[in-house]
Design a protein that fits this description.
Helices cover about 25% and strands about 30% of the residues. By secondary structure, the chain is an alpha+beta fold. The chain binds biotin. Biotin binds near residues 23, 49, 67, 119 and 120. Biotin (BTN) binds near residues 46 and 119.
Length: about 250
């Protein structure tokens, strides 16, 4: 580990682990046991890291694996907004520390030159329909390496940025906590607009794999609750869950 000391926001309690199965799993147990909002679980490696859609997340030492517990004062249906708060915060952290241009793919993948460098897994719980109990923001950022067997992935090291995990974690937590307060006080609109700036190519042909079936159409950005808007032949569709793929067209078409 480097000698860098991770300075944290005042309302953050950072817990460090050398190795865990999954920081999200550790954070979930802590959330259920009643720990304060702002508790953060950070591990040097994960033995069983989890990705979206039930996939695994390759987690050797050298990358950032962190899960942040939040108890926002919002409805369960608004909980996904915090994922956008986190992805915008991570884009701005990487950009300000490295100068590298990072873009977003819905909902919360971070890309450098169209290759995935980071992902976010949100998990939440609510016992009644009016109030979210907790949400876990699980962030995996490829710093030193990325999985060789998965195509179109990259890491900061390959992109020429030599930064420690500690520096990135500190920058990210500072940015995230300030944006969470902004979201809490002013609502989702500012974050939504920022997210749209970092997720370009509006109007491009996009295919979205849904839990059942798929939708193809023009990408039109985010609506006011974080759903993806796709303009299809039958009108605009608002999509809550799915996976986005660009439509590759033949050059001569
Ligand atoms: C994705 O599939 O894009 C989301 C990946 C999220 C990975 C992070 S690493 C830290 C946290 N703990 C986990 O087990 N997963 C998330």
């Amino acid at each position: 580990m480097s000698d860098f000391f991770v300075e944290t926001p005042t309302d953050c309690n950072l817990l460090f682990y050398k190795s865990v199965e999954s920081t999200n799993e550790v954070a979930k147990k802590l959330a259920v046991s009643g720990v304060d909002s702002g508790t953060v679980v950070w591990a040097k490696e994960q033995l069983s890291g989890k990705g979206r859609h039930g996939r695994s997340w390759s987690s050797p030492p050298g990358n950032l694996y962190v899960s942040i517990i939040q108890r926002p004062n919002c409805k369960p249906s608004e909980g996904s907004q915090i994922g956008f708060v986190a992805s915008v915060s991570l884009v701005e952290t990487i950009n300000s520390l490295t100068g590298i241009k990072v873009t977003l793919k819905w909902p919360n993948d971070l890309l450098i030159n169209e290759k995935k460098v980071a992902g976010i897994l949100l998990e939440s719980s609510s016992s009644d329909s009016d109030k979210l109990d907790w949400v876990i923001i699980g962030v995996g950022l490829n710093v030193l390496s990325c999985p060789k067997h998965i195509k179109d992935t990259t890491c900061l090291n390959t992109e020429g940025a030599r930064l420690s995990v500690e520096e990135l974690l500190q920058g990210f937590l500072m940015k995230l906590y300030s944006k969470i307060s902004e979201w809490d006080e002013q609502g989702f609109e500012i974050i939504r607009q920022k997210w749209m700036i970092y997720a370009p190519i509006q109007g491009s042909e996009t295919r979205v794999r849904l839990p059942v079936g798929e939708v193809t159409g023009k990408y039109c950005g985010l609506d006011c609750s974080g759903n993806l808007l796709i303009e299809t032949k039958n009108g605009i569709k608002s999509i809550e869950t799915g996976e986005v793929f660009p439509v590759v067209t033949n050059y001569n078409e």
